[in-house]
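Worked Example 4.2. Consider the chain below.
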Amino acid sequence: MTIRIMALGDSITQAANETPSDPGGYRNDLQRILGSKLGTLEFVGPFEDGPSGSDRSHAGIPGNFIDGSYRPPAGDYDPNGAVNNNIFDRLSDLDGISNNGSNLSIESYQPDAILLMIGTNDIGNKDTPANAANRLKNLVNTITERVPDARIFVASIVPFNRAGVDQGTDQARNYQNVDPYNTRIPVVVNELAQQGKQVTFVDVSGAIKAAEANGTYNLAADYNHKPAIDPNGDVLHPGPAGYAIVAQTWATALEKAYQPSTLVWNDSVWFLENANPASRTAIANFSLPSPYANWAIRGTGDFNGDGVEDWVIREQATGRNAIALLNPDALGNRTISFSSVNPLEAQSADWSLRGVGDLDDDGQDDLVWNNTSTGQFSVWYMNANRTKRQDLRFGPNIRDAKWQVETVGDFTGDDKADLVLRNLATGQNVIWEMNGVAPVRSIPLDNVSREWELTGSGDYNADQQTDLVWRNGSTGQNVVWAMNGTAIAQRITIESRSGPAVIVQN
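Applying the procedure from the previous section yields the following structure tokens:
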């Protein structure tokens, strides 16, 4: 699989203020981060910047505005700056050279993904946040019409370096509008997404601010990382550390969009492509590594922060457990291999692992257990090093053992995993909304007859919603409930599979 990526924007995309020895800015870091996780990446565009050996193509033009409709005020500003240098007018000829005999329209590059970060020059030249956002909406909408098959990732613009600006000046007042502009970008993206456009908001500014707030990043020092060249510091452009944060934020968004959804069986993995759970394009058989070959997969979750779902495996008879870490590069080639297996604490055989999810919104996936004899629940809250931080057993116990936790997922959009329970006798199903440690309310789902088993959950159509997958073991039929929060948006029949195979993803 090849993904053609166009990095589109201004001098930040081009990589101004980067070190001369590594001038690729975020693009070079992005290539290093993704590697072959998503298959083959091919960067496209009319310009080339970056170190030898990297994919240097891009469409970042220093000084670019959103479009040419804005006229900066005269005086310290070039009133024709936006007219002469803007993305909207360059869509038909991206290098801006009309007489070179080449057709360098955005369509000619056939991009699959467009990474758009634009607006810094508009805000810096006294445009208002509201007007800039309206112009951005028109630009993004036009791009979606010209390259309708491309996914457009629209980023917030990077913060400016307050330490490099004399406070109280016109320039400082302009850049106070960066945050108000950024708050309008997700609104614009959401409006276009609701119209069916393939657009995604990427909060680059939020990632930089979060790193600064937690002490892992110093914005002023990074922007001013070349004092011998620029003794007054750079106001607009990150240095290497900032570009690395930008790259990681883009990478996370691309992984969410292009990492194929997987349906994990006890003996194989189905790769579901094109945001369509009915579109299985590849299947990978696997064997668990020795000495775990006879263990069973009981759940999936990302336990090392690489964006790939790892597997919790268990030997039920002995109660032994382990985490099998998947090799992310293998997934790009639609194969399965393991980087390592980490043993976990044992859990006695009367407990069953029912699901994996981040219950307390700490960024770590937790393990949810159900005692099938007593009805008691247990949550193993996990550390980043894949060890158990806390074992919380909570009630109310389900006195009727016919009710069991079947899977785990965030259905309410609060970034805390919820529990899905099923009555094995009546076919009733409910979502328990969780607050991290206990149920908050019970939300009924449709009843499903007893010959169907709720086998797992995951995002099977790439809409950032948790879906449910059902299997009829007798007929081999499989159905995905594509969810919109706690409501069923669509029932999608996927490929049948006969025999004793079991879907284990939860």
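The longest strand covers residues 2-9. The mean pLDDT is 87. Compare this with Example 4.1 before moving on.
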